[in-house]
Amino acid sequence: MDTSVPNLLSPALDGGGEMGSLIRAMDWDQTPLGPISGWPPSLLAAVSMILTNRLAMHIIWGPDLIEIYNDAYRPILGSKHPAALGRKAEGNWSEVWDFYGAHLRGLRLSGKATLYESQLFSVLRHGFLEECYFTANDSPIWDESGGIGGILNCVTETTQNVISERRLNLIQACSDPAFLGGTAQETADLVSQRLEAERLDIPFSLLYLLNERGNDAELAACSGIERDGSDLPMSVPLSDSTGTFLPLAEVASARQPVLAEKLASRFRPRPGAPWPEPCDHALVLPLKGGSPNVPAGILVLGISPRLPLDKAYREYLELVADGVAKALADTRAHAETDQQRTWLHALFMQAPALICILRGPEHVFGFANPLVYNLVNKTDLIGNPARTVFPELGSQGTFEILDRVYQGQAYTAQERRVDIDRGKGPEPLYFRITYQPMRNAQGDVEGILVFGLDVTVQVLARQKAEEASADLAAQKSILEAIAQRAPLPVVLETVTRNAESLFPDANAAILLVSSDGRLVNGAAPGLPGEYLRAMEGSPVGRDAGLCGTAAFTGVGVIVGDIASDPKWKNGRDPALAYGFKACWCLPILSPSGTILATFALFFREPRHPAYGELNRLATLTRTASLAIERRASEESLRRAQDQLLQAQKMESIGKLAGGIAHDFNNILTAINGYSELSLQLTDETSPVREYLSEIKNAGAKAADLTRQLLAYSRKQVLSIRIVDLNVLILDLGKLLKRLIGENIELDLALDPALRTIKVDPGKIEQVVLNLAVNARDAIGAGGRITIRTRSITVSKDNRSLAPGLYAMLAVQDNGTGMSAEVKAQVFEPFFTTKAFGKGSGLGLSTVYGIITQSGGRIFIESEPGKGSIFTVYFPVAEAGEPAAPAAPAEHGASSRDEATILLVEDETSVRRLVKQVLTDQGYRVLEGKDGAEGLEIGRGHPGTIDLVITDVVMPRMDGIQMIQQLRLLRPDVRVLFMSGYIETPVVQNGVTPTDSHFIQKPFLPHMILDEVRDLLSAKTR
């Protein structure tokens, strides 16, 4: 018998990339959250959800605001990672805590989700305070008490979008006629005014124009710095190559930008600068437009201390310089030139936004910058109508909007969704877009300027945050149902209802895997009853339909179109008949990998999973697994409780049976004893002799019945020996064959390495014979009985047996088997499935009592029609104890002439019987009615008392107390105890100690005479 028991564990946080590993490896005992095993389900569900999400997400939990985040969130932390994990948010974000801390406290008070878009934060994450912008959604996480346990933050960094947009605005302004003045000085003033508004990117600027001779640079305008300060030279000779102030001469000569450093010591910025840090770097750029060898001027642009001077920043400053140079050139030219158009084209081509021009009523592409080509993944734009290039937009209202714009009505949208086919089918994209009518000199619309920013990431981030909030709410409701110990069907229906709320176009179903490998309904509130009944009892197998295959392989099966997918070949017609056209099915696994059920979503339209949808379904399957595992644990507990109740019932029945047997023993002692004495005195020809024989036979049967009851109630006296089960069974071989009959085969599979046991061999023979007879009766005509032995070791994980070494005895038959109801009662006394008069119902109850009293355990495995196995486990004897048969008793000669016996018995009929038997054999008998009277006689008798025969349980003073007192006066007196019940100090656990003599009622006259002769003979030796 396999005695191992699987080790069922709670699920752990799986996956999650680097952060999943860090979270599982972290010593959470050192944090206010404590160990993961003590985290509430709401926190576990939230952490599991963010670890499986590709969006940047973090959780701020508990009153200490402890921070937990996923892999996508690490770039936002920068060098704060990994130390930020498990720390207080205030410590991680101290530089922005005035704003962020107040925001979090407000959310915890209101309990309402918040959204802020492109919020400015000055973050210290790369060694300096950095200008950063974030769009984030904060949602409360409700805990099990109904309060706010934490906050879920889904965040997208929009720094590049914000900075790109404002830079694009400045670049666009460079082409605005308002940027131009009538003179170079006016244009310079306009430039400085415009740059004054751009101090986040350009803290200060200096615009130097070269004089007519080109040998001096004259300060024409500045922003962000005091013009009149003595430390700001108005004129710099280009002949001065030392660069004491700024490398103007070097830039003018090389006509290449130069980075100037350590500016804080050269001149002071004007008070009120955008950042408290000094502006210590600037890019000195030549302005194109002068002679071939000399620039038109030099532009000094300060570099923000809170932005890195990366390639995009540098290119932006160069574009600003180009724009300023262009404005100066345009001012000097007083007219738009081909050079200006080329520059604007280059500007549009480099702009960090989508720009295109549509011409005519057919909206023909006349211009598109690289971002347009890259985004739509199309090459055939220029010269083709928009309807031809983007036919998929025909059903989305886009062309109707363009038609209205061409009529002169501008259009702006903040989050315009368009589904564009970029080669893999339509994909949803979101734009902040403007359609602006383009008019000619006469005011007529000739085309449309399209300007847009791709905000897909931000929109999807918000949508994911909303989905995450919905997922969290679904998990919370399911976990609450589990925590409230709702019945499994209620919990599973809660799971399916939440699945249908998360997938509104689907019907959800959970099909449990039964013990015989079939699918049965767990919960499917949305499926048609007829379809559900058709699925009920479906087999689990590789080609047994979608759900059967998922349950067999343990791998999800996704069918986006039932009508064409070969995986649905075995269930296509019924599904289509009920209107189902797609199905996704995932297996529900236990923590140990056992397949418990399947989770299926049925759709009425062909449907393939979108990004993240299978993760949402997988999260629901894990929650369903918790519910099913909980049901299994509860059933295991219920079975244990049933076993305990059964054991208690058996114990109660045993006590009752033992008590009844005790009372009968005294009566039967008198009946059987007087019957035997009467027969001895009755002539062989007397008709009374036949009646006395019947009385004696009936008494013997009653005595057998009481012995069986005592065996069941574990109240019989055992004669313990070291026994080899193999030898005992082999010795019984012939008897067993006679008992079971010639038409039943008997197989013996005995373990030659079997360990010995300490038992009463006679009683164990009775066990083997009773089990064999029981198997014979279950088989009927023909069949096989197998008796096995084996030594086994039971581990501490076994729930049925204590750890240790055991000798196993198993009796197996291929008979009719038993139902669960019969198995529950099979060891109860007087229970039998045989016809009336065919059995007493005490055979198996006797087996149960003997095994239990011997320190063993017995188990049954049986099902109707599959036979039965009775398996017995005995603790093995200690090593070194050899098996040996009991030595036969040696009877010495009795000494009757001088033997005086003190007889003490409270039951009058038994006392008279014993006295009669003893006096008939010539013994002198002193008679006492109870222990007190017996002690008085023993003390007062002047002569020798050779033997005391006493009952154990008596009124006033029991036999044990009497003997203890009597031995103070007569230490050598021999004692024979007699009793009908073994729960006395003389007999412990049914075994008599070697220094005590005991005879159990009922007994016959010759039996007590044998005991008396043995004791008296031993005294004379």
What does the model show?
The protein is of the alpha+beta class and 1021 residues long. The chain has 29 helices and 34 strands. The strands form 7 sheets. The chain has a 6-stranded antiparallel beta sheet with strand order 8-7-6-11-10-9, sandwiched between helices. Strands 19-18-17-22-21-20 form a 6-stranded antiparallel beta sheet. A 5-stranded antiparallel beta sheet has the order 2-1-5-4-3. The longest helix is centred in the middle third of the chain and has 69 residues, at 613-681. It starts with 16 loop residues before the first helix and ends with a helix.
Alpha-beta content class: alpha+beta
Strand line-up of the largest beta sheet: 8-7-6-11-10-9
Largest sheet: 6 strands, antiparallel
Count of DSSP strands: 34
Low-confidence stretches: 1-10, 711-715, 835-839, 884-897, 988-995
Radius of gyration: 50 Å
Q: How far is it from the N-terminal to the C-terminal residue, by CA?
A: 53 Å
Question: What is the fold's blueprint, element by element?
Answer:
Elements: H1 17-25, H2 41-51, E1 57-61, E2 66-69, H3 74-77, H4 89-92, H5 97-110, E3 114-124, E4 129-142, E5 148-157, H6 159-173, H7 184-196, E6 205-210, E7 216-223, E8 235-237, H8 248-254, E9 258-261, E10 281-287, E11 297-302, H9 311-333, H10 338-350, E12 354-359, E13 364-368, H11 370-376, H12 386-389, H13 398-406, E14 411-421, E15 426-439, E16 445-454, H14 456-483, H15 488-502, E17 506-513, E18 518-523, H16 529-535, E19 538-539, H17 545-553, E20 557-559, H18 572-577, E21 582-589, E22 595-603, H19 613-681, H20 687-712, E23 721-723, H21 725-731, H22 733-740, E24 745-749, E25 757-759, H23 761-779, E26 784-794, E27 804-813, H24 820-825, H25 843-853, E28 857-862, E29 868-875, E30 900-904, H26 908-920, E31 924-928, H27 931-940, E32 947-951, H28 959-969, E33 974-979, E34 998-1000, H29 1005-1020
Parallel strand pairs: 24-26, 30-31, 30-32, 32-33, 33-34
Antiparallel strand pairs: 1-2, 1-5, 3-4, 4-5, 6-7, 6-11, 7-8, 9-10, 10-11, 12-13, 12-16, 14-15, 15-16, 17-18, 17-22, 18-19, 20-21, 21-22, 23-25, 26-27, 27-29, 28-29
Helix pairs in contact: 2-14, 7-9, 14-15, 14-19, 15-19, 19-20, 19-26, 20-25, 23-25, 27-28
